[in-house]
Design goal:
It holds the Pfam family Lcl_C. The protein has six helices and 18 strands. It is an alpha+beta fold. It has two domains: 158 residues; 126 residues, Mannose-Binding Protein A, Chain A, CATH 3.10.100. The strands form six sheets. It has a four-stranded antiparallel β-sheet with strand order 3-4-5-9, with no helix packed on it.
Length: 336
């Protein structure tokens, strides 16, 4: 079945616990499955001062440093509002990207910056970029993405980071974040009208209702068409990365009816509802045994002896050292 509403990570190589590159066949790693919406070739179309991403249909400023200097979150929102008043580059629908829009640019095969090879962007800063999405776990903070290695966490709205404006509705492949409220710099709920925040724009593919469907083999996410194991805890305690891959392989050997795999970081992130926290899963989800941090099958190419993980209490995407028994295991399959 065709992948829906989650993107291929761009990862093409597989790596051992110590970071050495190894053959992908039979490894159970991200690159061995290459799931997610594939990237078109060529990926980008340069249109003067704008770049259209053929994967998502979103249109980005070609310069990733248009503001020249780091801005507070509100200053960044104000900068975009001024772009629209001035009809910068002849357009007036610019916005600060939400967290899924900004993550859609990332390549997990590259670093410094973590953007697709041969990308056409200029003035890219290998550091943090704001998104328009507030962190539900701490609304005085907003999500940001690091372009040096692709991490996503949140920072205080009074801190200063870079801005990369985007516009257009896209092709409908990037889903909404789930955020519907807006918050001021102190974390108080405010009117969304004219705020420029994620909660005002609500851009992206809408979520189906109901979002999840219980099947014999597991839980179907009707947004992505991914089938998740109902138990989000396949091991009795946190495990090292190699043991996480082995736990999913053992599940398949037991013949539980689906071709289970350790999810990529994009598959894990697709579950996040940015309106909630602890866990950051959609309300009414049917999963059991939900824990905090989950291994993905995606290696961090910034340091290949580390792998990507989802921090589900917050909704963050970070990394963990592969040889440390820190994280839990959740299996996924592609629905038939």
């Amino acid at each position: 079945m065709t992948s829906e509403h989650y993107l291929n990570t761009g990862q093409r190589t597989c790596h051992a616990d110590d970071g050495r590159e190894l053959a992908c066949e039979g490894s159970g790693q991200d690159a061995s499955f290459a799931v997610g919406i594939p990237w078109p070739e060529p990926r980008f179309d340069v249109r003067d001062d704008e770049v259209m991403d053929g994967l998502t249909g979103l249109i980005w400023c070609r310069s990733a440093g248009l503001a020249e200097f780091p801005l507070t979150w509100q200053e960044a929102l104000d900068f975009v509002a001024a772009m629209n008043r001035e009809q910068r580059f002849g357009q007036r629908d610019w916005r600060m990207p939400n967290r899924r829009e900004l993550r859609s640019l990332l390549s997990l095969q590259t670093r410094l910056p973590a953007l697709p090879e041969r990308h056409p962007f200029i003035d890219v800063f290998n550091g943090w970029y704001w998104t328009s999405t507030t962190a539900a776990i701490s609304p005085a903070h907003a999500w940001y993405v690091a372009l040096d290695g692709a991490r996503m966490f949140y920072g205080g709205k009074d801190q200063s980071f870079m801005l990369w404006p985007v516009r257009g509705e896209g092709l409908g492949v990037v889903p909404r974040t789930g955020q519907s409220l807006c918050y001021d710099a102190a974390g108080n709920v405010m009117s969304c009208v004219g705020s420029g925040q994620d909660g005002e724009w609500r851009v992206g593919a809408p979520w189906p209702e109901p979002r999840f469907e219980m099947l014999q083999d597991g839980v179907l996410d009707r947004l992505t068409r991914l089938l998740w194991h109902r138990s989000a805890n396949l091991t009795p305690q946190p495990v090292v990365w190699r043991e996480a891959l082995a736990a999913v392989a053992k599940l398949n050997q037991a013949g539980e009816g689906s071709a289970w795999r350790l999810p990529t970081i994009n598959e894990l992130e697709s579950l996040v509802d940015c309106a909630v926290h602890s866990p950051a899963l959609p309300a009414g989800h049917p999963f059991a045994d939900v824990l905090d941090i989950y291994w993905s099958s995606s290696t961090s190419l910034f340091e290949p002896d580390w792998a990507w993980a989802l921090y589900l209490e917050k909704g963050a995407t970070g990394v963990g050292q592969k040889r440390f028994a820190e994280f839990s295991v959740w299996a996924v399959a592609t629905a038939d």
